[in-house]
Amino acid sequence: MTRLIVAAGGGGDAVAATMLDAALYGDEDRAVILTYAWDRLLIDPVPGPRGARDFTGLERLTPSVSAVSAEARPIAPAGSTLPRLAAELPHTFALLDPYQGVEGVTRQLEELVRLLEPDSIDLLDVGGDILARGNEPTLKSPLADALALAACCQVNAPIRLLVAGPGLDGELPLDDLRDLLGPIVHTFTAKDTESVSSVLEWHPSEATGMLAATARGVRGTCEVRDAGLPVALTDEGPAIHEADIDDALSRNQLARAIMTTIDLSEIETHSREICGYSEIDYERNKAAWLSEQPPSELDPAAILSKLDNFETEARSRGVTHTTFRHLTETLNLNGHQREDLRKLLINSHPEQYEAPLWRITTRPE
To answer: Backbone dihedral region of 7: left (phi > 0), alpha (psi from -120 to 50 degrees) or beta?
Structure first.
C-alpha cells in the first residue's frame, strides 16, 4: 500500500503526519510526506520557506519533486529540521517548493501521484486554520495552508482533508471550528506518540507538541508563541477530524484567489490584500530586529530567576503549561540557545517536564 500525505503547514504538520501514518497503518510501508521546509526563525534565520535551491544533497524523485534525505543540508545561513527528521523517521520527506506558486505545487502533486499511484492522499493540518476565511482577527499564518489547499483542489485525484488537534495552533478558537469539522477519523493516544517521542524532544513545533501532550493526557492552558497566546488543552485536543475539502476551499478566500499563481510573491500580494498582511513580512521584520540585538549569554542563575518571575505572572493568568519556544523568546534568548535552556530547566526542575511541554507549578520551598 502506498500513501501520500501533504503536510499543509510544514514543520510540525510533517511530524504529525508521521504520527498519523503510524497510528493508522502501523509498520506497513511508510507514507511519502510532501512538506514545506519552513521552520520559522527559531531554527531558520532566513525569513520564509526554503525551496529546492536552498539545499544540497537532495534526491530527485520526479522532474519537479526532490526528497530531503538525512544527507541533505540547507545552504548557510538557512536552517531546516527536515534532514534530521529524515534521519530519525522511516518516511520519505518530499519537498513542497512554493516558489513557483500554486501552479508549481499542483505540478509537484500531479507528478507524485503519477509516480506513486497512491492508495490514499490526505491533506493534514494541525490546528484547523486551513478552514479560515482569511479575515479572522486571531489568524496569523494563513499562507502555507491556503497554498496547499489550493493546489490539492486542482489535482485530479481524491484527496481527504484532515484536521488534527482543532484549535491547538492558537489561530482559530475551537468553538469557531466545531461546526466545520466532520467525523472523527482517529483519536491519538499516548501509545500513538511513541513513534515520535524522540523527535518531540528537539523539534520546536508548538502545535504538534501540544497534540502529543493532549494525547498523553495533559490538560490545562498552554501559553505559546512570542505573543503568549493561550491555548486550551482539552479532551478534544487529540482528535483527528475529516473536513469537507470543497467547503474549505469555498471558505478560504486566500486559497481561491491564488489558484493560478506562478510565484510566491504573487501569493504574498494576495495575502496582504485579503488578510491584511503577509506572514513572511512579519518574519522579515522580526529577523531584522533580531539581527540588531546584542548576543546574550545563558546565565543559569539569571535565567532561573527570570523563570520564577514569568511563572508567577503566568499562574495569575491561569496558565498551566508553556512551550520551550515560548520560554526561549520570553527569556530573551536566541533560537540557538533553546536546547541549552531546555536542558537547564529539566535538570533543575525535572518534575515540571511533561514532555514535550513545561508545566508551570508552585515549587516546594
So the answer is: beta
pLDDT band at 365 (very low <50, low <70, confident <90, very high): very low
Considering the domain architecture, whether residues 181 and 311 belong to the same structural domain is answered as no
C-alpha cell at 63: 522532474
In a domain, 225, yes or no: no
User: For residue 358, what are the CA distances in angstroms to 7, 189, 321?
Assistant: 26, 20, 6
Q: Please, what is the end-to-end C-alpha distance for the chain in angstroms?
A: 57
CA distance 225 to 50: 21
Give me the DSSP letters along 199-232.
HHTT---HHHHHHHHHHTT--EEEEETTTTEEEE
**Statement: residue 72 has pLDDT above 70:** yes
Per-residue pLDDT, 41: 85
Q: Which domain holds residue 325?
A: 300-359
- Residue 98's closest CA among 152, 55, 56, 147? 147
Backbone angles phi, psi at 187, to 5 degrees: -120, 120
Provide the domain count of the chain.
2
Same domain for 107 and 159?
Answer: yes
Residues 279-287: what's their mean pLDDT? Answer: 95
Name the DSSP class of 170: S
| Per-residue confidence band for 361, with pLDDT thresholds at 50, 70 and 90 | confident
CA distance 40 to 331: 18
Determine, yes or no, domain membership for 230: no
